[in-house]
Amino acid sequence: MDRIEIKKASHFHGEFYPTPDKSISHRAVIFSSLAQGKSVIRNFLRADDPLSTIKAFREMGVEIDDKGMDVIVCGNGIHGLKEPHNVIDCGNSGTTMRLLAGVLAGNHFFSVLTGDRSLRSRPMGRVITPLVQMGADIAARADNKYPPLAVKGRQLQPIRYPMPIASAQVKSSLLLAGLYTEGSTEIIEPAKSRDHTERMLPAFGAKITVEGLSVSIQGGAELQARDVYVPGDFSSAAFFIVGALTIEDSDITIKDVGINPTRTGLLNVLKRMGAEIRIENVRELSGEPVADIHCSNGVGLNAVTITKEDIPSMIDEFPILCIAATQARGTTTIRGAEELRVKESDRISSMVKELRKMGVETEEFPDGLSITGRADLQGAVLESHEDHRIAMALSIAALSAEGVTEIHGVSSVNISFPGFFDIVRRLTL
Ligand code: S3P
Q1: Could you give the domains of the chain?
Q2: Which atom of ligand 1 is nearest to the CA of 312?
Q3: Considering only Cβ atoms within 10 Å of each terminal Cβ, which end of the chain, N or C, has fewer?
Q4: 169 CA distance to ligand 1 centroid (A)?
Q5: Which residue's alpha carbon is nearest to atom 15 within ligand 1?
Q6: What is the pLDDT of residues 257-276, one digit of tens each?
Q7: Model pLDDT for residues 164-201, shown as the tens digit of each residue
Q8: For the residues of 306-365, what is the DSSP string, one character each?
Q9: Is 316 labeled as catalytic in the residue annotation?
């Protein structure tokens, strides 16, 4: 079923576990595939994106069992991958393609990475340029900018690379390539992006040093298997946090959510807007902070101004922040967010187009948008633009819209959150 009809909800109540973290699930599979021995990944996200990563490593000879509750990966070490017989299809997953590019650049065989229509239009020059500086042999479509990528593995050299954009995918790709060098590779970020790689890779035996915005990896270390427990995904929880803040009668608790500060910028912004959100039972799981999040619709929200500095720690939360902005008093402005144009869809134009159909006053800028609230949302016929986060954000908006909203392209939620509509149903019953 690729379309759904959603009616205005009278309430939003309950307690639930969000899906496991997507970024951490990808990394757990990649690092354990490169480690010597058997790793067990508990609470793995069985959604299309991380499953693309599993498929890719299976095609390179790694034994991965994902039939039961846990995913069991039997890695053969950083030099244990085999040349794939066919093109590797990364599906919709930018994380799979960019992190794999770093791994494959240092593996002495030939491989080709491709993906779906959305992924084939996403910029790959941002990983190809620094990897080529490290000595990689990579060719790509449209003058080395877009997938497919053809990689011929080679001996890599360490580099010092000041990144022009804050991107955890680029940083992680280069750290993985750095494993295949003899020496120290240093990456300097313009702003801190999510740091799951720096937290998890040392636990497998990599030598990583973090000093402010600089991250270095010492090449040559062998990785050893270890078990990983994946916490709940803050980016999935975010849809329900904003749901609770925008649907009139609401009171929800989201359990076991990752609250890594490089991911929770949305919480700070919502607090600036006046939201009351309680973080309870803070603890640590596999090197990541985790908590239960409680929120309800109490005080109303006020508009906020988002600038470049706010962006990296909430890069995936813009579609749902836009929904909060429709219910805030005043005009919310988001600037310095041009990266949103190269996500699974152009999230600036996708949101402007769909919110206008719901009667929202919104203006598009090259690097962001403005939204004027409080809008009386109207049910309409909407498009997900085949983007999972747009589909989920519009579904949350539909719960406070008059009449019926019909959303097309909702099977895209399977990219990161297969049980999304079941939880929506449970909270609105
Ligand atoms: C991700 C990093 C982010 C994010 C993506 C997942 C990761 O992309 O948008 O959903 O797992 O490293 P960028 O690092 O390119 O901003």
Answers
A1: 3-20+231-428 (3.65.10.10), 22-217 (3.65.10.10)
A2: 16
A3: N
A4: 5
A5: 167
A6: 999 999 999 999 999 999 99
A7: 999 999 999 999 999 999 999 999 999 999 999 999 99
A8: E-GGGSGGGTT-HHHHHHHHHTEEEEEEE-S-GGGGGSSS-HHHHHHHHHHHTT-EEEEE
A9: yes
